[in-house]
Amino acid sequence: MRVVVYSESGPSSVLSLVERPEPQPGPGEVRVRLHRAGVNPTDWKMRTGATSPGDFPEVAPGQDGAGVVEAVGEEVDALSVGQRVWVFCAQHGRPYGTAAEQLVLPASRAVPLPDDASFDLGASLGVPAMTAHRALTSGETPSRLGPGSLAGQVVLVAGGAGAVGNAAIQLAVWSGAIVVTTVSSPEKAALATAAGAQHVVDYRTEDVAARVREVAADGVDLVVEVAPADNLALDLDLVRNRATIAFYANNGGAEATLPLRPTFGKNVRLQGVLLYLLSEEMLQAGALDVTAAVEAGALRVGEEAGVPLHHFPLAETAAAHDAVEAGAVGKVLLDLA
């Protein structure tokens, strides 16, 4: 099989396309013939050494993808040969991820993909949608998402044109929330609106606090935050009593100053979100809810959903990494079929 690998940390030039033997699934594993792979910031950060991909002599990057099961190992009952699946956390704890034509991974990381869902959509789920799911379920209620589960709640999504922000908008709207999101340009405002956000605020030209209070006079129930170093003080000012601020990145700075009285005075919960270290129960709940949202047509990709798609062949994985590192808006995908 063809696979893109690296054996040392560095720029995208350390990536190389090689041939490796067809992998065989062991007990509890499946082999997937990948059609698409999603590229996420975590992929280039691991490649550069900013975070660790694991202690392996050779690594194929990529956590997300979609394809068809072509072999199952012993003790696998939930999946069968020929079944379409989307995969997540594929490279976590393992040397080979989704920048490959074939992939062996635990069956629990391969989820049936609804028949009318494209491989583009399947490969775009994983990190963004599962991270968004955990952020949206990290408050007092609910522990699962679905129609009505966030009814009456106001959710503030920082950076609504980003991959996680877009997924959070779509999942929150599907669950009945009123969504306010911040963006940095009219172009990104159009994408956030296409994702379904009812209120979009350009933080470069508008008063965010005033605009949010027009929607949530009593305060926001939940914040999905990408830049806590920049936004924590504003978030604390805008949330209601017993609200949650869920943050999944450190855009804008590696440290944030926490004003104590505004935090404990409102019983605010600060929830960090890192997909790879969630419990198995949380991961499976997220996979079920994300798939249900796909089945309902609530999770979408493409320009009309606020997620422009950028396709690269497997041989140009380095260019795909560079595009994500440069801040490509939308979803970068590898074509593998």
UniProtKB/TrEMBL annotation:
Cited CDD domains: zeta_crystallin
Residue span(s) of domain Enoyl reductase (ER): 10-334
Keyword field contains NADP: yes
NADP keyword on record: yes
Lineage: superkingdom: Bacteria
Keywords associated with the record: NADP
InterPro entries: ADH-like_C (IPR013149), ADH-like_N (IPR013154), ER (IPR020843), GroES-like_sf (IPR011032), NAD(P)-bd_dom_sf (IPR036291), Zinc-ADH_QOR/CCCR (IPR051603)
Coiled-coil annotated residue ranges, if any: none
Name of this chain's protein: NADPH:quinone reductase
Species in which this protein is naturally found: Nocardioides nanhaiensis
